[in-house]
Amino acid sequence: MKKRYIIGGLIIVVGILVGFFISKNSAIAPAAPDTTGMATTTATTTITTLPVKSHASVPTILKNGEYLVTYMNSGFVPKTLTIKRGTGVRFFNYSTRAMSIIAVDQNSQTYRTLNQEQSVGKGSYYDFSFVNPGIWVYTNRNNNVDRGTIIVQ
Fold first, then answer.
1. Which CATH number, 3.30.70.1070, 3.30.2130.10, 3.90.1150.10, 2.60.40.420, labels domain 41-152?
2. Where exactly are the structural domains of the chain?
3. Peptide bond into 78 cis (omega under 30)
4. What would the DSSP string read from start to end of 68-105?
5. What is the DSSP-derived secondary structure letter of residue 146?
6. Which tens digits make up the pLDDT trace of 48-70?
C-alpha cells in the first residue's frame, strides 16, 4: 500500500515539474524582427474591437512589436510618433469614416510608398514598415484635413 502512495506522489511531483518547465519556455520572447527588408504593406483584415486604446501621450506597442496609430473621428492618435528605422506601424480605423493612408509629399518616390491602395472601414487596419529615415507626413485620402507625422530615426 505504501508503494502505491510513493509512486503516486512521484508521478504528481514529476507532472508539476514538467508543467513548470513547459510554461517557463512558452514565456520566452521571440527574437527581434528582421529590419533589413523593404517597406511592405499587409492586406487589411477586419477586427471587431480596438486592440488597444491609444493615448496621445504614450505610444502603444502591439504584441508583434508594431506601433499603433488609431484613426478616430477627431483624427489620428497620436498625431506625431517617433520610431526607429525598420519599425512597423499599424493604422487602425476606429472612426465612422473610411480610411486610406497616403503620404502628403507625393513628389518624393520614397514617401510615395506610403500609399494605401484601398480604403478600409471601421475595425480594419493598414500595416506599413518604415525602412527609410525621415519625416513622413501622412493624411487620410478620404478626409485630408486629418494629418499625422511619423518621425523615423
1. 2.60.40.420
2. 41-152
3. yes
4. EEEEETTEEESSEEEE-TTEEEEEEE-SSS-B-EEES-
5. E
6. 445 545 445 567 888 888 999 99
The predicted-structure confidence for 1-26, as pLDDT tens digits, reads as follows 676 766 666 666 555 554 544 444 43
Sheet holding 101-103, edge to edge: 80-83, 143-152, 134-140, 101-103
The mean per-residue pLDDT over the stretch 84-106 comes to 94
pTM for the full predicted model: 0.65
Q: Specify burial of residue 66 (Cβ count, 10 A radius: 0-12, 13-18, 19+).
A: buried
Which three cell numbers, joined as nine digits, stand for 76? Answer: 489620428
